[in-house]
């Protein structure tokens, strides 16, 4: 990744680097960002000193691919139970049931 950095001098004539990626999603400021620990997945959290908004720099996206979802639905509509599909694909049965609900609304909209 190409990181843009800006070097400024504070009132004590010390260099301070400002990372352009640390931009507050609420107020848009770049200069008043401070590290604020890590979340459960280990990703860095940032807090804006100006508006007190706390956010994650690069949140991890944990999602199944479209191919996996399509395969799970295909197995389910072929006659397997939601629990069986979950066991075969090594995932939670709740995921399968949620995808079935979403797929049913898509089918109803198409009719």
Order of SSEs, N→C? EEEEEHHH
Q: Could you give the order of strands across the largest sheet?
A: 3-4-5
β-strand percent reads: 15-25%
The gyration radius over C-alpha positions equals 23 Å
Structure description:
This protein has 111 residues and is an alpha+beta fold. It folds into 2 domains: 15-56, no CATH class; 66-110, Arc Repressor Mutant, subunit A (Orthogonal Bundle), CATH 1.10.10. Helix content is 34%, strand content 22%. It has helices spanning 66-77, 82-89, 93-110, and strands at 5-9, 15-19, 33-38, 44-48, 54-56. α1 packs across α2 (82-89), α1 crosses α3 and α2 (82-89) packs across α3. The mean pLDDT is 81.
Q: Which descriptors apply to this entry?
A:
two-stranded antiparallel sheet; three-stranded antiparallel beta sheet; alpha+beta; 111 residues; Arc Repressor Mutant, subunit A; single chain; 3 helices
Topology:
Blueprint: E1 5-9, E2 15-19, E3 33-38, E4 44-48, E5 54-56, H1 66-77, H2 82-89, H3 93-110
Antiparallel strand pairs: 1-2, 3-4, 4-5
Helix pairs in contact: 1-2, 1-3, 2-3
């Amino acid at each position: 990744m190409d990181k843009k950095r800006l070097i400024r001098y504070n009132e004590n004539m010390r260099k301070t680097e400002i990372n352009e990626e640390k931009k507050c999603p609420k107020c848009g400021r770049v200069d008043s960002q401070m590290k604020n620990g890590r979340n459960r997945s280990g990703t860095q959290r940032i807090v804006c000193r100006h508006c007190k908004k706390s956010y994650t720099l690069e949140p991890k996206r944990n999602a199944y691919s479209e191919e996996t979802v399509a395969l799970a639905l295909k197995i389910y509509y072929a006659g397997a139970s939601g629990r069986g599909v979950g066991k075969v694909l090594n995932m939670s049965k709740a995921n399968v049931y949620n995808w079935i609900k979403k797929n049913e609304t898509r089918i109803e909209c198409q009719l």
